[in-house]
TrEMBL record:
Homodimer. This is Dirigent protein. The lineage of its organism: Eukaryota, Viridiplantae, Streptophyta, Embryophyta, Tracheophyta. It comes from Nymphaea colorata (pocket water lily). Belongs to the plant dirigent protein family. The keyword Signal applies. It is found in: Secreted, Extracellular space, Apoplast. Dirigent proteins impart stereoselectivity on the phenoxy radical-coupling reaction, yielding optically active lignans from two molecules of coniferyl alcohol in the biosynthesis of lignans, flavonolignans, and alkaloids and thus plays a central role in plant secondary metabolism. Transmembrane segments: none annotated. The keyword Lipid metabolism does not apply. It holds the Pfam family Dirigent. GO terms for cellular component: apoplast. Coiled coil: none annotated.
């Protein structure tokens, strides 16, 4: 400490020594901090949840749930490169659209592959039923719908899914090539507090 202080001007040496001892005192008296959510007095405990549901992307008919909002001019791509769709897709318990509605997938997807059909998915799963009612999960990642299995990251959430992280596994349950409508099975694995 004397060696470090000897390189400082004489007027700053007492301040330096005082600051050093103050920081040493704070470090020695610091207690481990437990994570808590805002407004909660309980310490956080990490949980893992598995959610299973079906995502219905309906582009045909009178009430589509996915609407093309950007069509690129002068680009010819078999993969649909440059198209962007806004979505408000129902999430159901079972594969039938008539099964119990548990939430909605809201956001957009953009076709970002020139050679292969791939999507940039940016959406929020808004849960409307059960214990997760009012909670959300946010997904952001690559989706290659022609692959049998796709994995996308869960990048956050709200409500019971605050500070969420995890991944979503998607499998196409049914795809109608004539209409473009798709039914996708999702298994989502989430770590949250």
């Amino acid at each position: 400490l004397k060696k470090m202080a000897s390189h400082l001007p004489k007027s700053t040496t007492p301040i330096f020594v005082l600051c050093f001892f103050f920081l040493a005192f704070l470090t020695a008296s610091a207690r481990p901090v437990q994570r808590q959510l805002a407004g909660s007095r309980r310490p956080l405990r990490e949980k893992t949840s598995h959610l299973h549901f079906y995502f219905h992307d309906i582009v045909s008919g009178r009430n589509p749930t996915a609407v093309n909002i950007v069509r690129p001019a002068n680009i010819s791509s078999a993969a649909g490169f440059g198209n962007v769709a806004m979505i408000d897709d129902p999430l159901t318990e079972g594969p039938e659209l008539s099964s119990k509605l548990i939430g909605r997938a809201q956001g957009f997807y953009a076709l970002d592959g020139q050679q292969e059909t791939t999507l940039l998915m940016a959406c929020t799963y808004v849960f409307l039923e059960g214990k997760y009612n009012g909670s959300t999960l946010s997904i952001l990642g690559r989706n290659a719908p022609m692959h049998a299995v796709r994995e996308m990251p869960v990048v956050g959430g709200s409500g019971l899914f605050r500070l969420a992280r995890g991944y979503a596994v998607a499998r196409t349950h049914q795809y109608d090539a004539n209409t473009g409508d798709a039914n996708v099975e999702y298994n989502v694995y989430v770590i949250h507090y």
